[in-house]
From TrEMBL:
It is a single-pass type I membrane protein. The lineage of its organism: Eukaryota, Viridiplantae, Streptophyta, Embryophyta, Tracheophyta. Gene3D superfamilies: Phosphorylase Kinase, domain 1 (3.30.200.20), Transferase(Phosphotransferase) domain 1 (1.10.510.10). SUPFAM superfamilies: Protein kinase-like (PK-like). Residues 210-232 are annotated as: Disordered. Its main location: membrane. Residues 40-232 form the Protein kinase domain. The keyword ATP-binding applies. It catalyses: L-seryl-[protein] + ATP = O-phospho-L-seryl-[protein] + ADP + H(+); L-threonyl-[protein] + ATP = O-phospho-L-threonyl-[protein] + ADP + H(+). It comes from Gossypium stocksii. This is Protein kinase domain-containing protein.
Amino acid sequence: MLKKKYFKKLLQQHLSSNEDNADKIKLFTSKEMEKATDYYNENRILGQGGQGTVYKGMLIDGSIVAIKKSKMVEGKKFDEKKVEQFINEVIILSQINHRNVVKLLGCCLEAEVPLLVYEFIPNGQKPISAQQSESVRSLVSYFLHSVQENSLFNILDPMVVKDGSEKEIIDVALLAKRCLHFNGKKRPNMKQVAMELELIKASGGNVIEERGDEESEIDDRIHSWETSPSSC
């Protein structure tokens, strides 16, 4: 109960500065989430990774949604820092309105592990699927596997390929790969990421170097992300 009140208070404080966002975010109950996912039935799992598990759910009104059970705040110990990270994720996602970005519908603060509820977009074969091999089940490993196999452009949305130059896309992908290093100390910080993105934008690409990453390191990273209970 204490955790739920803390979540609500912190979320309301953030949302109060933007009434438009406050109206967009719906707070779901834990019972609604249980019914929507058939009590988190494994058959409802869309994908799993270092950040959590995503379930396909159906709300009372019949609408289909994707429900993310985050590992960010999972565990018995109440960690205010992790709570704030979760709230910040909600705030950032609530401000995004783009045709190529899945819309955040709301969240559930009553559950032991807070949940994010997104719109569900069916697109045929799912890139993150329990039916695929272990090496490409999560979004992180799927991306790293595509980089390793030199098939990055096969997983990109056609609009992304059309709007950006090949050099820009490759440089952004290399930057993303560095951000996914399993050792947090080897990842660039947010300031460095922002600076490099600005450089890519200004130069039209060809800015970021591989920095000596070998294929074996990518293999280790894919395995680490798949076997870890949570990201570091």
